[in-house]
């Protein structure tokens, strides 16, 4: 019976050694898993910080661009409402009409060129010298509606 007890004790010692080995191995595996989880959590936290910072930067840039867009829109509206803008547009319409008449009407071109040259010379004379000084003091009023307010 002693032999059985010795065999049983040896088997129990071997089983206890194997049990301790597996407990130590499991504890090491749990520590390794905990380290890996901590490393992954740190990576995730860093990535979320970077992405949130990037998203915040994009939102700020988007807000700034919207603000600039609104400022440009207001500036464009202001510039289009400037005094003289309607007159410039009207003059462009007149220039286009004159160009079409010059091309389409055979007698209009030479008469137009002569009238234009005379008007330019008169304007140059009025721009300099005594005539210009007198015109500044006494403005000449005309009854002709050269630049009407509306485009038909």
3D architecture notes:
- By secondary structure, this protein is mainly alpha-helical.
- The protein has two domains: 1-82; 83-137.
- The protein is 84% helix and 0% strand.
- It contains four helices and no strands.
- It has helices at residues 2-80, 85-104, 108-127, 129-137.
- The termini are far apart.
Helix and strand arrangement:
Blueprint: H1 2-80, H2 85-104, H3 108-127, H4 129-137
Distinctive features:
single chain, 152 residues, mainly alpha, 2 domains, 84% helix, 0% strand, rod-shaped
What is the helix tally?
4
Radius of gyration: 47 Å
**How many domains would you count in the coordinates?**
2
What are the secondary-structure elements, in order, as H or E? HHHH
Biggest pleated-sheet summary: none
Beta percentage is under 5%
Ends: how far apart? 128 Å
The secondary-structure class comes to: mainly alpha
Gross morphology: rod-shaped
Low-confidence stretches: none
Number of strands: 0
Short structural summary:
The chain has 152 residues and is mostly helical. The chain contains four helices and no strands.
